[in-house]
Amino acid sequence: MNLDTYFKVSYGLYVVTTQSGDKKGGYIANTLFQVTATPPQFAISCNKDNYTTSLIQQSGVFGFSILSQKANPALIGNFGYKSGRDFDKFHGVSHFKGKTGIPIITDSSIAWFECKVNHFYEVGTHLIFIGEVVDNGILEEKGIPLTYSYYREVLKGYSPKNAPTYIEKEKIESSYSHISNQADVWQCQLCHYEYEEAKGDPISGIQPGTSFLDVPDDWVCPICGAGKSLFEKE
Ligand code: FE
Predict the structure, then answer these.
(1) Per the omega criterion (within 30 degrees of 0), is the bond before 40 cis?
(2) Which of 112, 120, 222, 229 could form a disulfide with 65 if both were Cys (CB 3.0 to 4.6 A apart)?
(3) Which of these ranges, 57-71, 127-141, 173-187, has the smallest mean pLDDT?
(4) 205 DSSP 8-state letter
């Protein structure tokens, strides 16, 4: 078995949202696809431990927004690496109320869908919900969708532990074998993003060769928005 094979499968990246009563939930998903055209239905695979999963079970509706390649990394961090049980993920994030009353994210997204759950299946650690489209819209006509491979290869993000595509970090080190051993690497303890001193952080304009200690104190992890204090030297 070659674990790198799993990274050859292509995915998009989405923010899945829902609401039950006054409780809003949302998370970053890559396992989402259209299953039928008539009626138009999409499937999502959600970890049973996720707060949003229980809210979708209660509400029977979910929305998803297709993230832009220019998505704000802090939004991915909030929705991908933190739990809505103890944190308001929607604070400061632009969204509107859809037809079914759930929040639909417009921030960092190029289009959105709202779906009513028709079927669900229990698959070990995950629940697969299949929802029929009740509404949709385009936010940025020419926007480029963020793909999982761009997220992984360019932004250097990993799947969080509850994602269907999560693979233990030790096992995926082989796919990062191009990383130089010459300069220090600092890792975000929240999302596993690695700041490589040899490469700097092109997203924030940190020049290659910049020691992590010389990175400005207000710099944050480009993937999850964590501060410098959450980084540890590899
Ligand atoms: Fe991070």
Answers:
(1) no
(2) 112
(3) 173-187
(4) T
Distance 74 CA to ligand 1 centre (A): 9
**The two three-digit tokens of residue 183, written as one number:** 């300069």
Rounded distance from Cα 125 to ligand 1 centre (Å): 25
Rg (alpha carbons) of the chain, rounded to whole number: 18
Mean pLDDT of the chain: 88
Q: What SS3 state is found at 35?
A: strand
SS3 55: helix
pLDDT tens digits for range 6-29 = 888 999 999 999 999 999 999 999
User: How close are the terminal C-alpha atoms of the chain, in Å?
Assistant: 27
CA of 229 from ligand 1 middle (Å) equals 11
Percent pLDDT > 90 in the chain is 56
Q: Which helix (H) or strand (E) holds 113?
A: strand 109-123
Give the three-class secondary structure for 111.
strand
Give the Å distance between the CA of 212 and the centre of ligand 1: 14
The pLDDT tens digits for 131-178 are 999 999 999 999 999 998 888 777 766 677 777 777 665 454 444 444
